[in-house]
Design brief:
- Two copies of one chain form a homodimer.
- With 330 residues, the first copy, chain A, is α/β, with parallel strands linked by helices.
- Chain A has three domains: 43 residues, Orthogonal Bundle (434 Repressor (Amino-terminal Domain)), CATH 1.10.260; 129 residues, Response regulator (Rossmann fold), CATH 3.40.50; 137 residues, Response regulator (Rossmann fold), CATH 3.40.50.2300.
- The first copy, chain A, has twelve helices and twelve strands.
- In chain A, the strands form three sheets. Chain A has a six-stranded parallel β-sheet with strand order 2-1-3-4-5-11, with helices on both faces. In chain A, strands 7-6-8-9 form a four-stranded parallel β-sheet, with helices on both faces.
- Chain A starts with a helix and ends in an 8-residue tail after the last strand.
- Chains A and B meet through helix 4, helix 5, strand 2, helix 6 and helix 11 of A and helix 4, helix 5, strand 2, helix 6 and helix 11 of B.
- Chain A binds a DNA duplex (30 and 30 nucleotides) through helix 2 and helix 4.
Chain lengths: 330, 330
DNA sequence: ATAATTTATGTAACGGATTACATTGAAAAA
DNA sequence: TTTTTCAATGTAATCCGTTACATAAATTAT
């Protein structure tokens, strides 16, 4: 691999001039051509290790995902990657498995200068740790966030989204609506519950605590919770699950028990993952603009990397209720 | 951020000694403790940009995935990531969208020293280009591969796997078995077709070309192909799809047309993605040891990075037929 | 006790770029 | 013509580690 010095020699100029050509500095047209020819002839590509050291940047964005196999995240990552690439950044993928230790190791990459900033979704880590990191380095929260710390975020209005989902069920005549929620340590879980309750109240329907259950994140967890709900004496006639994965688990249980969706039980999910549309019946859900969220998160982060002082505003993106077969009027 | 020089000053030693402590060089126990204390006090972390430049390595593995949203790949990436981390490598995620231009841009990262090697799955790029890259840099093929070029690969025995899947259908009594294949530009597509034919021949069943269709990669494509198969005068009684995504598309079409799986039509997929088990009915499929494939690919690559000359052997991992509801005896 | 080894540590070169500052030369202004 | 200004280019310092080589100190061997 040739170095800038060899190019300089070949072109009969100094390394400074070559560097200027590379970075669009002030160079006379004649010289520029000379240098460009040398670059082409030697098939030269600048060594980023040298450049990065000198510039003290890595042009890497650390993307911390709790679970890469959860299809919810993949589209966000696509958005992040596209926006990053457009700005000359690459993404360092970090699958945290919601494991604090792994997160810590990855956070160290910032100190080691291997990453210029972080986009985090659903951090398992102590909020105080994240806060400290946020003071020193550019950080952006995506989807799941804490408002207690001064770190900007991209998200949707979960309260309104859950409200709409529940209201949809109410509108088509359901009065007995269960909520399969996640762990309420998550902000989104608390917010979606709030939206669910808000809709019930608007329709003067009392909240039945028996119908509010807390599941994990997995398909199996959705199955289990649905089994529980169907075991109640007073069964719900519809379910709102806070993720499509949970909803798909519910769907499976309902059918396994010989009941029909939507005739016997209506189901609404959340996220609009690809598979929501592949189920039988197809799943009514809330669409989150995931690709766009990724793009905005990356752009926001890059802005902050370029100008640390820059105050960036949180971004709330639009969501959308997508009505499919699982809640056809009954 | 403190530098190695400041640590040296604080510990009252030279930078060389600090570096030796950092790299487990020969240092007297007393001095080592002195340095370690200084490191702790200053909260020092080595700047990897400096180290990488000096060592002329990036400790990054470029992972080229055609489509990050395809759940087939995510588990492989998990394996790659875990193995990489264990060896002190990070992974640079590259979603190629099977786009040659994007691939080229990513391949340039090697020249630029931003990555030490590549793991590629289903390269869209010209096989000759890949061959050239493989001569100069460490490359490993994962899952999809070409044998025409001298680049090691991790894969399964697709012929035998497809043979087993088809034989299973034959064994439970099916005689009219369709194949929903992918584009035969893919090695795996050609191999799986071969296995399918082999099984039919073993059972003395003539190959019916009408029942062999080539689909794309998407769910919708699976739906379309199944629709076509059901429109035939002489319909198949079972389908073997070369991916779960295609099989799930087929499943949907079959049910939309009012037919029952497995009673009316048996379905077998391939890959054993997470969702295969969430369908109704659950999907019979071939399990690929995806996590393990990722691990092996990463380890093989790292071996090659550390010793360019090293001749590594291709690895064929075991697969497994997983029988579920979609092919219960009929 | 002296020589030969071995161990511990330091000095300085090096990896490959960027860029502040200095210098040269040409164009513009006086 | 002389002075001023500015564009073009070069020299060398710098970013932060690693490591070859040199030197000093401590062991071991003789």
């Amino acid at each position: 691999m040739p170095t800038i010095e060899e190019v300089a020699k070949a072109a009969g100029v100094s390394v400074a001039t070559v560097s200027r050509v590379l970075n669009n500095g002030q160079v006379s047209p004649k010289t520029r051509i000379l240098v460009e020819n040398a670059i082409r002839e030697l098939n030269y590509e600048p060594n980023m290790l040298g450049r990065n050291l000198r510039r003290s940047e890595s042009r890497m964005i650390l993307t911390m995902i709790p679970n890469i196999s959860n299809p919810f995240y993949s589209v966000i990552v696509e958005g992040i990657e596209d926006a990053a690439r457009k700005n000359g950044y690459n993404i360092l993928l970090c699958n945290t498995e919601a494991d604090v230790e792994r997160e810590k190791i990855y956070l160290d990459l910032l100190k080691q200068k291997l990453a210029d900033g972080i986009i985090t979704m659903e951090p398992a880590i102590d909020i105080d740790v994240l806060k400290e990191v946020g003071k020193r380095y550019p950080v952006v929260q995506c989807c799941e966030y804490s408002e207690k710390i001064n770190i900007p975020y991209i998200a949707i209005d979960n309260v309104t989204a859950a409200y709409k989902a529940t209201k949809h069920l109410l509108t088509i005549g359901h009065k007995k609506i269960a909520l399969i929620n996640s762990d309420e340590k998550f902000m989104y879980a608390r917010q979606r519950k709030e939206g669910y309750i808000k809709a019930l109240q608007e329709f003067d329907i009392p909240v039945n605590e028996d119908w509010i259950v807390n599941a994990g994140l997995s398909f199996e967890s959705g199955q289990r919770m649905m089994k529980y709900l169907l075991s109640l004496k007073d069964k719900p006639s519809a379910v709102f699950a806070v993720s499509d994965i949970l909803a798909i688990g519910a769907l499976k249980t309902i059918k396994d028990e010989g009941l029909k969706v939507p005739q016997d039980i209506g189901v609404v999910g959340f996220d609009n993952i690809q598979f929501a549309n592949m189920m039988n019946p197809t799943l009514t859900t809330i669409e989150q603009p995931r690709y766009q969220m990724g793009v905005e998160a990356a752009e926001m982060l890059i802005k902050r990397i370029k100008d640390k002082k820059q105050k960036v505003e949180n971004v709330i993106l639009d969501h959308q209720l997508i009505i499919r077969e699982s809640t056809m009027e009954y």
